[in-house]
Amino acid sequence: MDNFKMQNTIKNNSYETVDANNSENYMSAIDLELNRLFPTRNIKRVLFVVPPDGDAQMFNYETAKRGRYYNYPEYGFGIIAAYLLRDGIEVRIINLNNEILKACISSPSAESFDFDSIWKSRVKNEIDAFNPDIIGLTCMFTQASASTSLVCAEIKCNYSNIPLALGGVHITNCFMNSNELQNILSDFNIVDLFFLFESEISFRYFVQVVNRMFSEAGLSNLVFNTAAPRLFFSKREIPAEKDLDIIPAYELMCVKEVSKYGVIGSFACLKEANARSATVIANRGCRGRCTYCSVRSFNGVGVRCRSVQSIIDELLLLRDKFGIDHIMWLDDDLLYEHKRAINLFNEMVRQNVGITWDCTNGIIATSCREEVMAAAAESGCIGVNIGVESGNPVMLRKIKKPGGINNFISAANVLRKFASINSRVFLMIGFPGETYKMIMDTMNLAMEMDLDWNNITIFQPLPNTPIFNEM
Fold it and tell me: Which of 268, 279, 348, 470 is a Cys-bridge partner for 379, taking CB atoms 3.0 to 4.6 Å apart?
């Protein structure tokens, strides 16, 4: 465990937050809030809701009709659900992004398609049928903030008595910055509880505390948005490696159909149109310290790995029960520990998994060794992205990129030996202090690497990153 950085008291206008973990005086206040939110002190049913990736104004009907929007399974909620099911809690998950895309594909025309009525009716029908004791939502990306706020408002307007919880990467990142915190508390003032960081352990424990199975003193990664002052719990519970060997509750997820109505990852074009894709995570965290990235802030320092057999078991389940023939690794550092990565790929071959895979999130160039990529290719790898970002040595040091020019060129030399792997490069322009010459260094390096594709993005600072704080 460690403590996340948040001032013991934050005051701004009506916002006041107090660290409940570090004050015994607030134990009675915690109990009071739990009794108010859950009068029967009994959570039996939990509903998880994935909001649309954007709101109606952002939505493009023609793009969705062509099936070109991203559409990912509810992996995080699936993991939390797996834990809750072990405790005898009933769980349901609805993926509103998938519902929107599914409805668009089947709609006869743009005029007959009503974005908001689709997700609103789906939420209402599920809540009426299931009658949950608490509803949890997630917001991973900034672009989903507006749609998440709308879904929260709709639920609270019609079901004000049901406690509403919200978490995810975007929410966590904003809580770690005093200016962004004000915006989050304003935009989501109707939310009762905020869960920060990875929350499968802390959410499970919270449910057990509500059900009077454990003490309130063990609460973590949590903010009560209902008390005055707001109570937050500075104790940070990071799932250990022993906690990661859990397979998501796929029976509650729409894993069979997400790739039918949208795209998973950057390499979907290399698969047949009827291929069925999903996502899997083999480890959490990243060895890198890139100043523009929030992975280290969200997941903590270092990399935590699942057991190889646990991963294989999940892949076989996806193949045999759900017909999945391709996966995108969610990992930010899949090739961490070369021997382990080779062992994973060899076991995929030995146990005849027969699923192709890609690394859309990117791999670290220094790990692109020939023996690693040979094992990857044999196990079914069809595509990888390499995180390069800049071709200028000064900028690479400034953003603390794990690797230099020679590492990138060496990685490209290795990858060109494997024709079956579509190899691409992540490039970024617009870093603070970057000059035209530095940008040209990046372009020249990309041409020298001579891989299959270059993904060029404009730098956007994320809250809870070193570069954001510097700017």
Answer: 348
Give the pTM.
0.95
**Phi, psi (deg, nearest 5) at residue 397:** -70, -35
Q: Which residues contact 406 (CB under 8 A, 6 or more apart)?
A: none
- Is the Cα torsion angle 170, 265, 310, 368 positive or negative in sign? negative
Q: Are the C-beta atoms of residues 233 and 219 closer than 8 Å to each other?
A: yes
* Structural tokens at position 55: 């709101």
Tell me how far apart the alpha carbons of residues 75 and 253 are, in angstroms, rounded to a whole number. Answer: 8
The token duo for 266 is 């950057």
| Nearest residue to 464 (alpha-carbon basis) of 168, 97, 229 | 168
Task: Give the Cβ contact number of residue 137 at 10 Å.
Answer: 25
pLDDT at res. 15: 55
Q: Give the model's pLDDT for residue 293.
A: 96
Distance CA 405, CA 393 (A): 7
* Predicted confidence (pLDDT) per residue in 377-427, tens digit: 999 999 999 999 999 999 999 999 999 999 999 999 999 999 999 999 999
For 190, which DSSP code? T
Q: What is the pLDDT of residue 52?
A: 98
Residue 14, C-beta contacts closer than 8 angstroms, at least 6 positions apart? none
Q: Could you count the other beta carbons within 10 Å of the beta carbon of residue 160?
A: 9
Give the Cα separation of 364 and 372 in Å (integer). 12
Q: Identify the DSSP state of 274.
A: T
Q: How many CB atoms lie under 10 A from the CB of residue 406? A: 10
Bridge partners (DSSP) listed for residue 222: 195, 233
**In the β-sheet with 422-429, what is the strand arrangement from edge to edge?**
277-280, 326-329, 356-363, 381-389, 422-429, 453-458
**Which has the closest alpha carbon to 167: 194, 203, 185, 135?**
194
Residue 24 DSSP one-character state: G
- Weakly modelled stretches of the chain, pLDDT under 50: 1-14
The 10 Å Cβ neighbour count of residue 73 is 30
Nearest CA to 248 out of 97, 86, 80 is that of 80
Tell me the two tokens of residue 106: 């089947």
Residues 324, 355: contact at Cβ < 8 Å?
yes
Note if the bond before 73 is cis, omega within 30 degrees.
no
Q: What secondary structure letter does DSSP report for 240?
A: P
Secondary-structure percent of the chain, ordered helix, strand, coil, rounded to 5 = 45, 20, 35
Q: What is the pLDDT of residue 3?
A: 41
Q: CA-to-CA distance for 20 and 30, rounded, in angstroms?
A: 8
- Greatest Cα pair distance, the chain, in angstroms, is 66
